[in-house]
Each structure stands twice: as C-alpha cells, then as structure tokens.
Amino acid sequence: MTTPSSDVLMSFEDAIATFDPVMGLEVHVELNTLTKMFCGCPTEFGAAPNTQVCPVCLGLPGALPVVNQKAVESAIRIGLALGCSIAPWSRFARKNYFYPDMPKDFQTSQYDEPIAFNGALDIVVETDDGPQSITLGIERAHMEEDTGKISHLGGATGRIHGADYSLIDYNRAGVPLIEIVTKPIEVEPALAPAVARAYVTELRELIVALGVSDAHMHQGSMRVDANLSLKPRGRAEFGTRTETKNVNSIRSVERAVRFEIQRQAVVLSSGGTIVQETRHFHENDGSTTSGRVKEEAEDYRYFPEPDLTPVAPDEAWVESLRATLPESPLLRRARIREEWGLSEHEMQSLINAGALDLVEQTVALGADPADARKWWTGEIARISNERGLDVAVLPITPADVHRIIVLTSDGALNDKLARQVIEGVLAGEGGPDEVVASRGLAVVSDDGALLEAIDAALAAQPDVADKIRDGKVQAAGAIVGAVMKATAGKADAARVRELILRRVSGA
Amino acid sequence: MPALDRDDVAHLARLSRLQLTDAERDHYGEQLDVILAAVARVAEVAADDVPPTTHAVPVVNVTRPDVVVPCLSREDVLSGAPAAEDDRFRVPRILDEEEQ
Ligand SMILES: [Zn+2]
After folding, report:
1. Do A183 and A216 reside in the same domain of the chain?
2. How far is the CA of A41 from the centre of ligand 1 (A)?
C-alpha cells in the first residue's frame, strides 16, 4: 500500500482528534435464487452474454413482471436474522434513471416501504483492550434488482473517460438483490474503520449461514457502499457525506473509511466544504476519487410499481420462516470456542484459515477437535495458501480428514505419511485408503523389519550403543533417523525408539 | 396549477438525457402542463376518505415459484438492439453525470 501524499490527507490520529466520523454502510447482496427477481430467466454466473434475458428483464413493451417467491422468502429471512420487523404490507417502486445498464430505464426497487426495517447486528471489534462487542442499528433491508454489465470500449483505459462506445450484457439485469442499510454509526472515532470491517465480515457470515447468497465480494455477489461524514467534536448535526463505491473486499472497506476520514479532515480543517458525491475506491493505493455528484432522491421520480402487487406476508408465514433461521454466527462461535476449549487467539486463527465449518464437520464425524484443527489449519491450510485457494474449495472433505485422523491414531499412519496421504487426496488419487494402498504408505509395523533396520544402523554407528548404555538416551535419535530413512519414513518413530532402547539394553 | 417554467423542463430533459432547444422546451412545457392539469383534476375529485392506490383491485402476494423458464434466443434479444457487437448491445459512448 502506497502512502497517499500528506497534502491531501491528514494523519488518521490528527483527524480523529478533531472530528467524529459518522458512517452509514449499504451492502448489496445478490441472492442465489435460480431465477431473476421478476422473471424466470436463470441467474447462473458466467453464462455467454445476453443468453439469460427475456422480454421482462429487457423491458420490452407489454411484458409483465411477477415477483419471485423464493426471493421474498430470502429477504424476510435476512430481515429476521438481523432482528428487523417485517412489514405486513410493502410495495415495489420504480426508480427512474436513464443509463443503459437498465434497459427498462428504471430499476424496480423498494423505496419508502421496505420489507424489513429497524433491526440490529452485534459485532466484535479488536481493540487495544481486547475484543469489544458493539451493537449496530439496521435501518432497513429491501428488495431490488441488479443491473446489466457495461464494458466501455475504444478508450485507452476501459473506463468511461475516453471510451468511444459501450457494450452491454443484460444477463445480470434483474438478478435479485437485497440492500441492507445501517443506521448512522457513531462509535469511538479510532475504531470506525475496524467497525466498518467487522460489520461487513459479520454480515457476510450471517448471509452465508442463511444460505441465501454465496456473498463473494470479489465476484460482486456482495458489494459495499460506505457513506461517511465528519463533524467537529461536540457538534450534534451531521456533516455532508460522501458515498464510496467499488469497495471490493472486506479489507478495502476498512481502508476506504480510513482514507475518507483523513481526506475529509483536511478539507474541513482548511475551511473547505465536502461535496455530496459518489467516490470511487482504488484498490491499488487505497484512495478514493471524485465520481458523480449524487442525484437527489426526487430526481429518481420514484412511484409505486403498477405492474406488481404489494407484498403482504402474513404472520404465520413470517413465523414459519423464522423457524428456519440458523444459529447466529456470533453465538455459534462462542459456543464452539467453549466446547473445544479454545483461546480467543486459537479461535481467530481457525476463522482466519476459513476452516471453522470444515473442522466442525470433521468433529461431527467423531474426530477430536484438536486433531481436526491440527490438519485443517496446518498442512491443508498451508497447501491452500500455496495455491492461493480457499481451504473450502480444495478437493478434500471432512470425511477424508476424519479417516486420516483415525488411521493416524490407530498407528497405521504417522504424521509424515499422513501429509503424503493429504497430498494424494488433493491430487485426485482417491480417498485416504486408496492413496495409502496405491502409494504403499502404511507404517511398517512389522517389528522384524524394523529390528533389521535398527541392527544395520547400530552397526554403522557403533558408538551410539555405548552412549545409550552410558545413559545418553537422546543419542538414540541418530538411529531413529537412520531407520526412518531406511524405511522411507514409513516407521512409527515412537515404536522404533522403543525397539532401539530394548535392543541396546539387551532385552 | 403552477405551470412548469423553462428551468423545470430543462431539469426534466437533463434527467431524461434529452437535449432540447429553447423552442422545444416551451413546446414540451406546454404539453406537460396539460398533463399535470389533468392529474390535478383527479386529485380534486378524490376526497380525503379515498386512499391513494396503485391497483384497481385489492390483490396482494402474486408471486411465481423459483423455476427457470426458457429465455429468448440471443438472435431475438439482439434483433431489437440499435447495434450489436460481440453478442452484446452496442450503445454510443455514455456520458455519465461525472462528465457533465
Ligand atoms: Zn428475464
């Protein structure tokens, strides 16, 4: 990360010494429904351009939209999981704007009548005094639809500036989106960037636990807009806010908030004013640059969508959906940490390795939590780092790891062999038993064969036996090493040591 | 009913991405006044005890199951495009707000 020059930024410490930041986070989540929000076109990611469109999502005259039942259910479940009230009656509206990413020239969205409102989400932030729990208010969660994808061509950079023309793929137009908006967030100024990050992290986990979206930030199925304003310490009314878009990773959320605090602080302390505008975040240096001046809400000329009926979920339906909610990720982590007796730090590294679910599933099969953690956050996490892939997408399952643990505790494998089994499973050579068989990886448990190797090693290093007899038991390590080498690592080191000591003492 | 002034019409034209001459602004402004007057008459007729509605019949929760139905063929999709390239709609260089 390059450090942006100091003439445009105030140091973060100076900024928060003078100003209180106020944040508002808007998160768009693309639902994983099979079809779009208002038509039966598939939503599959990566299809050939314009092959997943129909008269409805193209906005052709006379086409009539119909709401996707599953999308409404997902919206209600998200609302409930965020502790929101579910509106007994809500409507869709047309948000009118002329930009070719929407062929209808409007986006169908919810405006003044969102399906879910007034909730809260608990997050945990790391502070110098340890983890601190904070409750953030949720203003609303509403349903809307995604836009088409525009590529600007002909210009030098592929951005709008300098483009000669644009090409549009409408496959994404109409894919269901849920927009989740926080209430204004006012926390201890120094914590603001970390709070933004923790909120998005926690919300993402909740969405994934609900199973309503894959919530991949880098693929755009979860997108964050960060609103930020500053007010001089002690003043009650909010300052003018900016909205930073294009924040494509959880880490970027933190960086974007931090940058805007530092940038706005310089503008305000030098007597300038903040323009209400959209700003673009740049991944390379963590800066934001001015985008368009935001249109006023009235410029969108919202009006109720006459082609869709109101959504009026009755209480029985809402309650039946409430019954499907998973354990909240925060509570689940607390429970698991206690059950497995992990320290805060051990729990965090388990989460950071992306291995919590996998370890839990391995434990559910009967493995000891310590063994399961050892393999998932050790060898397997190492390989996933090496390949730059998430642990979860590696072709090894909790059942495979459980089997490896059983083989190891039975003495059929030692750790070194187990690592080779993992390597074989990941290489597609089959399950652990198949890899053991095909690679011939079983531990040499035949004492006769081991004694033969021990005798050979003792003969090659005649002074070792004397040292051991003199009480220098650690000298046996040289022989263990030689035997392991002779058996290509397939011996159980503890057994070999035992046999050496017995041999030398003449037993 | 207040008539739309030229600035109102200019603002609407900007939102609609239309470039209008002064004469056109006056022309469309007059037409929009007629429409607004017609809507205003509806508002006069509607008494306070008539709640605003967007539907003539009180129907709610018309939904469809999350089941994929066939889409248009790409040929059909692009047949309505003013221009196409690379299986996509081709449109003139887009003037976003940031360039205005
Ligand atoms: Zn469609």
Report:
1. yes
2. 4
**Which is nearest to A305 in space by CA: A98, A143, A101?**
A143
A238 in the same domain as A121: yes
Instruction: Answer yes or no: do A167 and B62 touch at CB < 8 A.
Output: no
Count up the domains in chain A and report the number: 3
Same domain assignment for residues A401 and A481:
no
Which is nearest to A45 in space by CA: A221, A268, A191? A221
Cα A39 to middle of ligand 1, angstroms:
5
Q: Does A255 map to a domain? A: yes
> Is residue A277 within a helix (H) or strand (E), and if so which, with residue range?
strand A277-282
User: Ligand 1: distance of its center to the CA of A58 in Å?
Assistant: 7
B63-93 confidence digits (pLDDT tens): 999 999 999 999 999 998 989 999 999 998 7
- Mind listing the domains of chain B with CATH numbers? 6-45 (1.10.20)
Give me ligand 1 centre to Cα B66, in Å: 12
Mutation to test the A interface, candidates B61, B78, B85, most A Cβ within 10 Å: B61
pLDDT 10s digits, A150-199: 988 776 555 555 668 899 999 999 999 999 999 999 999 999 999 999 99
Contacts of A93 (CB under 8 A, 6+ apart): A108, A109, A110, A111, A112, A113, A302, A303, A304, A305
Asked if B98 and A292 come within 8 Å (Cβ–Cβ), the reply is yes
pTM score: 0.80
From A42, A51, A98, residue closest to B68, measured CB to CB: A42
Give A504's contacts (C-beta < 8 A, 6+ positions apart). Answer: A458, A465, A468, A469, A476
**Segments forming the whole domain that contains residue A492:** 447-505
Same domain, A58 and A122: yes
The edge-to-edge listing of strands for the beta sheet with A165-169 is A149-153, A165-169, B88-92, B84-85
Q: Please answer yes or no on whether A311 and B59 come within 8 Å at the CB atom.
A: no
Query: Does residue A327 sit within a domain?
Result: no
**A225 plus A81 within the same structural domain:** yes
User: Does some domain include residue A45?
Assistant: yes
Task: Chain A: give the shortest CA distance to residue B23, in Å.
Answer: 23
Q: Which residues of B touch A89 (CB under 8 A)?
A: 60
Residues A461 and A496 in one domain: yes
Say if residue A416 is in the same domain as residue A466.
no
For residue B86, the chain A residues in CB contact (below 8 A) are 49, 167
Task: Give a yes or no: residue A345 inside a domain.
Answer: no
